């Protein structure tokens, strides 16, 4: 914990991440739960998740150029203030709902919710890329694993351990309440980031965005191991989003959980992230990067298989714990690897290209989840249809693990 005591800039960045991720954790439950209050159609609920993730596909590349060109601190502040305004828009939507016929009301609400989710996701792309790119400028290279582990631990504590159950309690009290808290967290996070004193850096000469993105692509193509990691992350994230998109219906209809119960279920994943953030730097140091990633790939299918075969909330909680622990081990290894390897002048762009592949496939997972359930339900019934995305994901995850064991070399 000495970094938190000795490094003021890191302490402020750490605090801002904690506060903004509390808001993210609240909205992670509140958004899909609000969608289920509007409709039970898995395809429409998938559209909301799709809209949330789509910006990672559309805006990762320009966000990288903006991050390398601009003031990363200012970008974080502006992104959080924009999220404050957009979350206020969600509150307005809930509070001043138009009186429409039932079918029109569903279509209007889902379309409006998708629009707000898309804009919030767009601001998140810029904010997260700027934050990850700024970290090496506030900590020494030898502290990156520890700093990343601590930040991801607090993000899991606030975003998944505290945020979702708190959202469940708030949404049971009043539907707009979790979004009001969300807005406050973004305002406070923006203020904390503004207090950071970032060392000045030389700004590159501005060129066309296409030329700058191409420069980042060329650098990444010259490092095929990093490109392989990006593509494997993309498949993994697609499967994770497929699982999480259906989980809100799975939780209600198969596990029989309320909003509060679903929130506590999500805390199991947070517990895996917290434990992972604490112990994964040590695991990575002991096993080495390559073997650590092989462990992750072997753990990843377990989550989907467990959820597919069970109706027990405790086993689902265990699955989420395993998934988040594995994800933290992957991140501790790969993000620190990128932050060391990529030159500072290219860090924003290459990070954004990496995320274009690694996160850009997430919206596809959201759409696949809704479509799989919708197509399967007439043939096999509602319950088995809600399990089918986990069956599909487990098969793909096993294939990915075999590929990684054979081809992944660092």
From TrEMBL:
It comes from Neptunicoccus cionae. It comes from the Bacteria. GO terms for molecular function: transmembrane transporter activity. Its main location: membrane. PROSITE patterns: MFS. The lineage of its organism: Bacteria, Pseudomonadati, Pseudomonadota, Alphaproteobacteria, Rhodobacterales. The keyword rRNA-binding does not apply. The chain crosses the membrane at residues 12-38, 44-65, 77-96, 108-126, 157-175, 181-199, 229-251, 263-285, 292-309, 315-335, 356-376, 388-406. Residues 1-410 form the Major facilitator superfamily (MFS) profile domain. GO terms for cellular component: plasma membrane. It is found in: Cell membrane. This is Major facilitator superfamily (MFS) profile domain-containing protein. Keywords: Cell membrane, Membrane, Transmembrane, Transmembrane helix, Transport. It is a multi-pass membrane protein.
């Amino acid at each position: 914990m000495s970094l938190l005591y000795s490094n003021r800039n890191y302490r402020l960045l750490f605090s801002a991440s904690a506060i903004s991720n509390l808001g993210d954790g609240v909205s992670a439950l509140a958004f899909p739960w609000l969608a289920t209050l509007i409709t039970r159609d898995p395809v429409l609920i998938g559209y909301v998740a799709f809209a949330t993730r789509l910006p990672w596909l559309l805006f990762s590349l320009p966000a990288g150029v903006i991050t390398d060109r601009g003031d990363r601190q200012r970008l974080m502040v502006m992104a959080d203030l924009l999220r404050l305004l957009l979350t206020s828009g969600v509150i307005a939507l809930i509070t001043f709902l138009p009186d429409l016929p039932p079918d029109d009301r569903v279509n209007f609400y889902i379309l409006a919710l998708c629009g707000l989710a898309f804009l919030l996701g767009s601001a998140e792309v810029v904010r997260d890329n700027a934050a990850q790119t700024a970290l090496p400028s506030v900590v020494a290279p030898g502290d990156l694993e520890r700093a990343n582990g601590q930040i991801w631990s607090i993000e899991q504590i606030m975003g998944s351990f505290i945020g979702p159950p708190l959202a469940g309690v708030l949404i049971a009290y009043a539907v707009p309440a979790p979004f009001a808290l969300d807005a406050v967290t973004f305002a406070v996070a923006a203020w904390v980031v503004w207090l950071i004193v970032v060392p000045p850096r030389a700004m590159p000469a501005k060129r066309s965005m296409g030329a700058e993105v191409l420069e980042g692509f060329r650098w990444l193509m010259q490092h095929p191991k990093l490109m392989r990691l990006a593509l494997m992350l993309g498949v993994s994230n697609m499967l994770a989003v497929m699982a999480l998109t259906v989980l809100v219906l799975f939780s209600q209809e198969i596990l029989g959980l309320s909003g509060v119960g679903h929130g506590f279920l999500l805390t199991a994943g947070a517990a895996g992230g917290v434990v992972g953030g604490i112990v994964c730097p040590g695991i990575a140091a002991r096993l080495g990067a390559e073997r650590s990633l092989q462990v992750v790939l072997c753990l990843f299918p377990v989550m989907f298989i467990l959820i597919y075969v069970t109706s027990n909330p405790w086993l689902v909680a265990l699955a989420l714990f395993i998934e988040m622990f594995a994800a933290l081990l992957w991140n501790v290894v790969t993000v620190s690897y990128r932050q060391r390897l990529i030159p500072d002048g290219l860090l924003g762009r290459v990070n954004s290209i990496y995320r274009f592949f690694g996160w850009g496939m997430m919206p596809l997972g959201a759409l696949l989840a809704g479509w799989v359930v919708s197509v399967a339900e007439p043939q096999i019934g509602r319950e088995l249809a809600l399990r089918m995305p986990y069956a599909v994901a487990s098969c793909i995850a096993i294939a990915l693990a075999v590929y990684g064991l054979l081809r992944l070399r660092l």
